[in-house]
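Moderator note: this is an archived Q&A kept for reference. The question asked for a predicted structure of one protein chain; the sequence and the answer are reproduced below.
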Amino acid sequence: MAGLAILAAGWIYYKKRKAAAQPMAKDLTRSNDLGPAIEPVPMDQIRSNEPAPANDKFPLKQGSTGKRVEQLQQFLQSRKGAKFPKFGIDGVFGQETLENVQKLLGISEVTEPIFKTNRISDFKTYVYKS
């Protein structure tokens, strides 16, 4: 019986030592010794590595996605000097693309004749492969 008590005491001692040796996880949502608080990122600002399903029928407008939108973004950047600092050229006609289209082309939607006249389809795509 004494052996069992020694074994139990040893086991408890071992568990306490093991728990003390492992660092506790810190709560990163509150300000602490690691620096300022980390704010959660809204879901609409998170992009995956996979391109969105193509939805690039004319007219191209906010919400459109796909190869033609990526070509439009390439065109705006290389020929018109557009900047896409937040998401880059990603084939998604979001707020950045809308602002660039309005500012540089003076329109809100890109129709097929505008697309063809400017030879936007000549631009190579990297996100949406042919």
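Archived answer notes: The radius of gyration is 28 Å.
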